[in-house]
Amino acid sequence: MAAAVAGFSPKSTHLHNPISFKGPHSSFPGGSLKSLCLQTKPRNRTSDFISLVVASASSRSSTNSSDGGSFYLNFTGFPFPLGPFLNRRTFRTEAVKDCIWLFEQEQALGFSSVSTNNRMTVIKLKSGGLWVHAPIAPTKECIQVDRIASFQLVKELGAPVEYIILPTFAYEHKIFVGPFSRKFPQAQIWVAPRQWSWPLNLPLEFFGIFRAKTLKDEDMMTPWADEIEQKVLSSPEVGIGPYVEVAFYHKHSRTLLVTDAVIFVPRQPPDCISKESLLASAKNGLAVKLLSKGKEVPEEPVVDNKMNRQKGWERMVLQILFLGPSNLLEPNATFAQMSQKLIVSPIVKTLVFSKVPEKVRDWIDRITRDWRFKRIIPAHFSAPINASRSDFLAAFAFLDDLLGERYVTRPSLSLLFTSLTGKAASYFPPDDMRTLSSLDEFLVSVGAVKKTVSGRKR
To answer: Which of 65, 196, 229, 230 is deepest in the core (most CB within 10 A)?
Structure first.
């Protein structure tokens, strides 16, 4: 039985006009790049010098001040740089009326044809200021700084940015905090504890993040504590570093914010994934030939149509979830099993959460005990997701098998539901898990990932 979760995905709006917002059901293409303008007056010379990211935007004049503004230069990342390297379109949706907005950009893995969406969530506080969760690339169409339009984010949402939040250690979110914060120098920066990077453990200042404050577990002294609560998952080192993620609960809207803890894969690709990326993924390249279950792979041109875009999206999803799925040639069967339900990503489950189930169980139980949320906003795939505490618990039902016990903090009425739906939420096709399981065994054998589970052997 699939988890009883309804995924809600409002139609997004491409932020193409720096002056006026066209409404929640508009969509229109970006403009062309005419010139490259690097920032010549950074707020801090030191931060500009050591920052790995150079953000810039093009401009063109017209009677209605229309501007593409999606240019953003980024060639950083290890072992693969994070694309797109030159162009990141921004799409905005209103998740909760006059309260919560979602900003999304495409994020690609190096030079591959695999992309997903990267999401920034913005909450308007009672003070009138904006609380920004997991910033994305500060392109011109996203925030807009020029003599005509001031800040687009501020102008259209009608409020100043007060707080910028880095809720994780993960590089794909950390990389944009520095450039984003320089656009809003008055905003406070708050980051998840125990920040680290690999292969070199570099300080936050190296990423252009200065004067950051540390998020603490259940801290009631934060400036937003009356409106937004927080709980920190800080695991022992499961390999090259600890897994750290901060969950937040917006009390007024009953919304849970997470980064990578859970996902909800939509049937259709997010609007921010370009058709070029989808069609590139639909091509029968080397990856498809290697992962085709021995079937003959036809050499045929890829035409731009709905079927091929869908095939490209399904192939992307399976590679993101499993690294090496069993059948990329015909991905629809496995995709149908993995989409439209709230799950923990197979990679996160296998390489992280299964190593420290006691820590994860404590975090999950505290979230479901204290927060009566009715929707979840992760940093990737669908959002907002209409989901209850029972749905959230069902996604983590695999922890019970690892721990062999039930925790009394679990809501009693959801126990039967969780046991039934949890099997579906935690089931991943064995053939598709084979590569990931082999990788886990290899990483354990070379000491890159620990075999222990919360201090105990499996």
So the answer is: 230
Tokens of 276: 């070029």
Phi then psi for 108, rounded to 5 degrees?
-110, 155
Specify whether the CB–CB gap between 372 and 254 falls below 8 A.
yes
> Phi/psi of residue 290, each to 5°?
-75, -30
- From first to last of its 458 residues, what are the pLDDT tens digits of the chain? 333 333 434 444 454 333 233 333 333 333 332 332 333 333 443 433 333 333 322 222 222 233 457 776 666 665 567 767 678 889 999 999 999 999 999 998 876 788 999 999 999 999 999 999 999 999 888 886 433 333 456 567 778 899 999 999 988 889 899 999 999 999 999 999 998 887 777 888 888 889 999 999 999 999 999 999 999 999 877 767 788 999 999 999 999 999 999 999 999 999 999 999 999 999 988 777 777 766 777 788 889 999 999 999 999 999 999 988 988 888 999 999 999 999 999 999 998 998 889 999 999 999 999 999 999 999 999 999 999 999 999 999 999 888 875 444 455 455 555 555 555 666 788 898 998 888 888 888 877 776 655 544 44
The token pair at 49 is: 């010098």
User: Coil, helix or strand for 122?
Assistant: strand
- What is the spatial distance between Cα 404 and Cα 428, in angstroms, rounded to a whole number? 20
Please give the full DSSP string across 233-294, using - where no structure is assigned. EEEEESSSSEEEEEEEEETTTTEEE-SSS-EE--SSPPTTS-HHHHHHHHS--HHHHHSBTT
Q: At 194, which helix (H) or strand (E)?
A: none
Other Cβ atoms less than 10 A from the Cβ of 456: the count is 10
What are the phi and psi torsion angles at 110 (to 5°)?
55, -130
Q: Distance between CA atoms of 185 and 41, rounded to whole angstroms?
A: 13
Integer Cα distance of 236 and 234 in angstroms: 7
Report DSSP letters for 310-370, one per residue. Answer: HHHHHHHHHHHHHSS-SBSSS-HHHHHHHSSSEE--HHHIIIIITT-HHHHHHHHHHHHHH
Q: Which tokens sit at 347? A: 């990679």
Q: Which two tokens stand for residue 380?
A: 């990737």
